[in-house]
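Quick one, tokens below. Sequence please?
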């Protein structure tokens, strides 16, 4: 079976490709444009273990480039696309909304159009918990009304869910949209809180706490997310004409101040804190109801935050520590 992974050089994409290339009878084609949201060398390092593998092919290219996408789909018999490529990050999307709309909305549509032209009708799409916005009902469920969005990034992800629905309704595509909840672990993006907090504490610099520390996130360990993506891939392959939206979270939110206490425990250091107002676009809490993914996919996240942070720290010490000293 041949799987196209978009955004393969990124945090989640490279962890997913590591897992899938270890499986028999799977060939992975990965595309990434090394978007400048964070450094290219970090993404090249993410790919370094994959490039030597015989069942992995990498194409540097942009999902908005019709020629590149068409040529991949024309020259390979792709069974399913796992679409992770996107400009990620809530706060920067408020500064550069057009870039986000270009990669996330136009890019997704370009990919779907090319898939339609080449008769590839199966996709798993990375959506985001940010579509729940300021939803007050907890935990967040797929059946909740999505009418409290407060960032352009979230709007692009909801657009992806709606556009894939059109391809399902009109052309019969099989689609699973996954709403990921704050993913962390080895190779986590450098803009995300856990990565930044480890860097600050290890450099003895203050950690920026937005608000009073009572905001909370349903942090989900990357290997649990990867299991959920693989189960979704299998679900789409087994169910023709399906369309589902599913939360992939941990169902165990952690308050910001508790997260910092966990990081102190893992590093054996005491954090210095600097309080700042909550930035535009940041939501007060995320909390996933994962019943649907449990029922349809057998999804069952097993990693407690303390354990996942230890794994992140081990990776960080091995690969990042020398860069920040
Ligand atoms: N990390 C999280 O907590 C989280 C939460 C919710 C949703 N998501 C979604 O999951 C997906 C993966 O996120 P991540 O954290 O691994 O981010 P990432 O930035 O590490 O990975 C995304 C990859 O997509 C590539 N990319 C961006 N625009 C592209 C384009 N036009 N053409 C080709 N490649 C392009 C980037 O270079 C990058 O390597 C994204 O769609 C993101 O929106 C992530």
């Amino acid at each position: 079976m041949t799987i196209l992974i978009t955004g393969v050089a990124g945090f989640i994409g490279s962890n997913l490709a590591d897992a899938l290339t270890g499986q028999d009878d799977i060939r992975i084609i990965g595309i990434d444009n090394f978007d400048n949201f964070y450094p290219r060398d970090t993404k090249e390092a993410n790919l370094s273990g994959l490039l030597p593998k015989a069942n992995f092919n990498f194409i540097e290219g942009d999902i908005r480039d019709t020629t590149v996408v068409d040529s991949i789909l024309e020259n390979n018999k792709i069974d399913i696309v796992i679409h992770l490529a996107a400009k990620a990050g809530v706060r920067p999307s408020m500064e550069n909304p057009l870039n986000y709309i270009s990669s996330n909305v136009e890019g997704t549509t370009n990919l779907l159009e090319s898939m339609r032209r080449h008769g590839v009708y199966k996709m798993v799409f990375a959506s985001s918990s940010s579509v729940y916005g300021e939803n007050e009902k907890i935990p967040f469920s797929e059946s909740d009304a999505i009418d409290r969005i407060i960032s352009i990034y979230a709007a692009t992800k909801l657009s992806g869910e709606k556009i894939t629905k059109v391809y399902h309704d009109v052309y019969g595509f099989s689609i699973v949209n996954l709403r990921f909840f704050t993913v962390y672990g080895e190779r986590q993006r450098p803009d995300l809180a856990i990565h930044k907090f480890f860097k600050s504490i290890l450099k003895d610099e203050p950690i920026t706490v937005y608000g009073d520390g009572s905001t909370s996130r349903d942090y989900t360990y990357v290997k649990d997310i990867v299991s959920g993506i693989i189960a979704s891939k299998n679900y789409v392959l087994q169910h023709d004409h399906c369309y589902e939206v599913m939360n992939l979270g941990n169902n165990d939110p952690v308050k910001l101040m508790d997260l910092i206490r966990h990081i102190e425990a893992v590093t054996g250091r005491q954090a210095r804190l600097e309080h700042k107002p909550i930035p535009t676009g940041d939501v007060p809490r995320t909390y996933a109801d994962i019943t649907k993914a449990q029922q349809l996919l057998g999804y069952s996240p097993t990693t407690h935050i303390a354990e996942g942070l230890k794994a992140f720290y081990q990776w960080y010490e091995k690969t990042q520590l020398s860069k920040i000293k």
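Residues 6-7, 9-13, 31-35, 37, 43, 62-64, 84-88, 103, 107, 126, 128, 180, 182-183, 189 surround nicotinamide-adenine-dinucleotide (CB under 6 Å). The longest helix spans residues 97-117.
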